[in-house]
Design a protein that fits this description.
This protein is 52% helix and 16% strand. It is built from 13 helices and nine strands. The longest helix has 32 residues.
């Protein structure tokens, strides 16, 4: 059985055809009318079903196909209700959310890298991802606006509950091995192989012309803002076994950083996106965290705050789901919905 979630499940309903081919090849399987009449065709339904079948590795049965159709009907009802209420997601709001998602992967992740990760991990084209994201944000915004009072009156967890969650999950609250470093670098993402080799040689010449020690690094780091040869930045803390960082930068880059002692400077190191000279400024072994420890160095979020956020989000999600289901029941009572069972 597919889980019935009207808002959190990812659905795509895209029909690409000419008007003539639609008349010849497509047949209406459901009609939805709240503010306007919308036909859901068999091709749109079959595409939705095909996506689920590809994920599950099997064909959906008739009951599951019906659940997919019901979810598509729910999507259309919410879209029409949101339009009626004047609720929309602007392009700038959508882009802001996308930027937040990208930045959550790391400060150096580019738009191109983010698109690649989306397509690899979610299995959608980036355009489909953006369209689906807009739909989900619209649905969330509709529930937030129409159920505001209910969602704002969720009680916070007590200290006993916080301590219980901490004790039950103590082994999960651990900092991995961490290293913090600064680096001189040249970005090579838009370069071909020859240009990347030239960039590595150029940074090598800059570094080789110094005493290649901590004082030389300090001087070059301070001069970076006026240099046309290289840039410089504080990378921040990097976990040793973070898969996404290794995927973006490459294992050689990560491993080199962890092989250096504090204040030690590397030679020229290549990553998947640049060439670098690194100086480690802090190194921390793995350790278990206490309730009032920072979850991650420099984030100023404690384990306690993280647990409170988790519990509140859990409660909010439950209330959100219930509120959404109630809103949908009201919309279904108001709308005109016709389903052609023979075409399912």
């Amino acid at each position: 059985m597919l889980r019935k979630k009207f808002i959190f499940i990812v659905l795509i309903a895209v029909i690409v055809s000419s008007p003539l081919s639609a008349q010849i090849l497509d047949r209406t399987v459901a009609v939805v009318r709240l503010e306007r009449t919308v036909n859901i065709g068999t091709r749109a339904l079959n595409r939705q079903v095909g996506l689920f079948e590809a994920q599950l590795g099997r064909e959906l049965n008739s009951e599951e196909r019906r659940e997919v159709l019901e979810s598509m009907i729910n999507d259309e009802l919410i879209a029409q209700a949101a339009a009626r209420a004047g609720i929309e997601i602007s392009d700038s709001q959508l882009q802001q959310f996308i930027d937040q998602e990208r930045q959550g992967l790391g400060p150096s992740v580019t738009q191109e890298q983010f698109q690649m990760l989306v397509e690899q991990q979610i299995g959608l084209s980036f355009d489909d991802y953006v369209a689906e994201l807009r739909k989900q944000l619209l649905q969330q915004r509709y529930i937030q606006e129409t159920q505001r009072q209910r969602l704002e009156n969720i009680p916070e967890p007590g200290q006993n509950e916080i301590r219980r969650v901490f004790n039950e999950n103590r082994s999960e609250f651990i900092n991995p091995a961490l290293v913090r470093f600064r680096h001189l670098y040249i970005d090579t993402r838009n370069m071909n192989e020859t240009e990347r080799n030239e960039a590595a040689a150029r940074l090598g010449r800059v570094w080789d012309a110094t005493s290649q020690d901590q004082q030389a690094f300090e001087r070059l780091f301070g001069e970076a803002s006026s240099s046309s040869e290289y840039d410089a930045a504080d990378f921040g803390y990097m976990p040793q076994n973070d898969r996404q960082i290794r995927q973006i930068y490459g294992s050689e880059f990560v491993d080199t950083a962890f092989e250096l002692d504090v204040n030690e400077v590397s030679g020229v190191v290549r990553s998947s996106i640049g060439v670098h000279v690194m100086q480690v400024t802090d190194s921390r072994p793995p350790r278990f965290l206490e309730l009032d420890d920072e979850l991650f160095p420099g984030q100023q979020v404690t384990v306690r705050q993280n647990i409170i956020s988790f519990l509140m989000n859990e409660r909010l999600q439950s209330e959100f789901q219930q509120a959404g289901n109630e809103a949908l029941r009201a919309l279904r009572d108001e709308a005109e919905i016709t389903v052609n069972e023979s075409r399912l």
